[in-house]
Design goal:
Blueprint: H1 2-24, E1 27-30, E2 39-43, H2 45-57, E3 62-66, E4 71-73, E5 77-80, E6 87-91, E7 94-96, E8 112-117, E9 120-125, E10 129-131, H3 139-147, E11 160-165, E12 168-173, E13 176-178, E14 185-188, E15 191-196, E16 199-201, E17 212-215, E18 218-228, E19 234-236, E20 240-250, E21 256-261, E22 267-292, E23 296-322, E24 338-351, E25 356-359, E26 366-378, E27 388-390, E28 392-397, E29 400-401
Parallel strand pairs: 1-3, 2-4, 3-6, 4-7, 5-8, 6-9, 7-10, 8-11, 9-12, 10-13, 11-14, 12-15, 13-16, 14-17, 15-18, 16-18, 17-19, 18-20, 19-21, 20-22, 21-22, 22-23, 23-24, 23-25, 24-26, 25-27, 26-28, 26-29
Bound molecules: 2-acetamido-2-deoxy-beta-D-glucopyranose (NAG) (5 copies).
InterPro entries: Glyco_hydro_28, PbH1, Pectin_lyas_fold, Pectin_lyase_fold/virulence
Biased composition (Polar residues): 133-149
Protein name: Polygalacturonase
């Protein structure tokens, strides 16, 4: 039965493909030709997979369209390559996750909803939306998440909305992504990633809803995008290098974050990250680097420039004592992921708690931390604390933080401080 449906679809496709290819030189397929209902009620996952399998094999540029004016309900799907290059998924309609997917009981609950893997030269674009359907979590609901009782049937990891694995030369443009149960857009073990003009939105109180999450991914450009969520705006994890963010607005959320790195004494390597022309509003942090004690490896060559903050609790943070729970995990250890070469240039705006917190490791102080023209003032009178600088070496120029002791960054040989232990980057 299913195979006859599939072969009928294939036949239709061949005709459609031939017609489209003749007129434009690129092939356009619609999921509607593969039996998708697009009514927001019927599960269109099978139709999408059938369409994908055909689109994937068409040589030359192919566009697989989810047309506007339709709502495509999809159960979790994996769309995998290898496919012919220049395949585009054009989302003009709305793609919907099953309701309450984030609280499905564990055996059924997927790790990701739209799972793309093994693709090269692939794009997602369009004027449509991808909606995770997660109800906004009230603080009460959020606390139920951690206790694993009540509304959320079982604790543990909730699905990432869109995930790319082992994919190269991927671009995601123009779409809106909202209401994920967890991370919205994740790239894992990938490279050559471009995200542009994307809007991500989830409530500020939705737990663990990172906007864009990068791990083991190189050569990334995130531009002209607006991200609001309940966790990190952009989260950069180990194995990432050459990451460039430009013209990104984060509101609300936890700001741009490198880490937590080095958990459970692991190796962490992050280098060559630039975030420029960034706006962070109504957030816990502005730009942050967080590492666990006991890790190895390094965070190197990081630049934050032209960062405007408003109503941010702590705009600038390096925390080498990061720990997301109490107890033995957080005991002091001697090793640390080294942090070397972090520049803050023109970070300006208002904070609600502490303008700057540089808490670096006793074993591996932060070196080459430079500040140029950092101007932060309290959003309101009272209730704030003074900046902290612990084991941070570097240089501050043209810096006006109220109130800031000029000796915040310790100078030693200018930028670099000779380390007490032999320094091995490992990375
Ligand atoms: C950005 O995306 C929106 C929504 O899809 C679209 O309307 C707009 O034209 C895009 N802007 C650019 C410059 O592509
Ligand atoms: C919290 O969960 C309950 C179900 O237990 C739901 O009815 C309510 O709408 C949720 N609150 C919010 C703000 O979504
Ligand atoms: C990625 O794109 C670049 C430039 O368009 C090209 O040179 C390179 O071969 C592509 N790499 C892969 C793995 O597709
Ligand atoms: C620092 O990172 C930037 C951005 O990736 C790169 O252009 C530059 O060459 C790097 N500098 C060093 C010394 O590695
Ligand atoms: C760990 O080290 C920091 C900095 O030296 C110190 O403030 C803190 O009290 C120590 N914590 C424990 C549990 O020893």
């Amino acid at each position: 039965m299913r195979s006859s449906v599939a072969s009928a679809a294939l036949l239709v496709t061949c005709l459609v493909v031939a017609a489209a290819a003749r007129s434009t030189g690129r092939t356009t397929l619609s999921v509607l030709s593969f039996g998708a209902a697009g009514n927001g009620v019927t599960d269109d996952a099978q139709a999408l997979v059938a369409a994908w399998q055909v689109a994937c094999r068409v040589p030359r540029a192919t566009v697989l369209v989810l047309p506007s004016g339709h709502r495509f309900l999809l159960s979790p799907v994996t769309l995998q390559g290898p496919c012919s290059a220049k395949l585009t998924l054009q989302i003009d309609g709305t793609v919907l996750a099953p309701p309450e997917m984030g609280s499905w009981p564990k055996p059924r609950r997927p790790l990701q909803w739209l799972n793309f893997k093994w693709l090269q030269g692939f794009s997602i674009q369009g004027t449509g939306a991808v909606d995770g359907g997660q109800q906004s979590a009230s603080p009460a609901n959020a606390s139920q998440t951690s206790t694993g009782t009540g509304h959320w049937h079982s604790p543990g990891v909730k699905p990432t909305l869109i995930r790319f694995y082992n994919s190269f030369n991927v671009s995601v443009r123009n779409i809106r992504i909202s209401n994920s149960p967890q991370c919205h857009l994740k790239f894992d073990s990938s490279g050559g990633i471009r995200v542009k003009n994307v809007t991500i939105s989830s409530p500020g109180d939705s737990p663990n809803t990172d906007g864009i999450h990068l791990q083991n991914t190189k050569d990334v450009e995130i531009r002209s995008s607006t991200i609001g969520c309940g966790d990190d705006c952009v989260s950069i994890q180990t194995g990432c290098s050459n990451v460039h963010m430009k013209n990104v607005v984060c509101n609300p959320g936890h700001g741009i974050s490198l880490g937590g790195l080095g958990k459970d004494n692991s190796l962490a390597c992050v280098s060559d990250v630039v975030a420029e022309n960034i706006v962070v509003q109504n957030a816990l942090y502005g730009v942050r680097i967080k590492t666990w004690q006991g890790g190895v490896g390094s965070v190197r060559n990081i630049t934050f420039s032209n960062v405007r903050v408003a109503n941010v609790a702590t705009p600038i943070a390096i925390d080498q004592f990061y720990c997301d729970r109490g107890g033995a995990r957080c005991a002091n250890r001697t090793g640390a992921v080294a942090i070397a070469g972090v520049a803050y240039r023109r970070v300006v705006g208002t904070y609600t708690f502490q303008p700057l917190r540089l808490a670096c490791s006793d074993a591996r102080p932060c070196t080459g931390v430079t500040m140029l023209d950092v101007r932060l003032s309290p959003a309101a009178a009272g209730g704030t604390v003074a900046p902290l600088c612990w084991n941070s070496y570097g240089e501050a120029r043209g810096t006006i933080i109220q109130p800031l002791s000029v000796g915040c960054l310790q100078r030693s040989n200018g930028y670099a401080m000779p380390l007490t232990q032999p320094f091995n980057y490992t990375c």
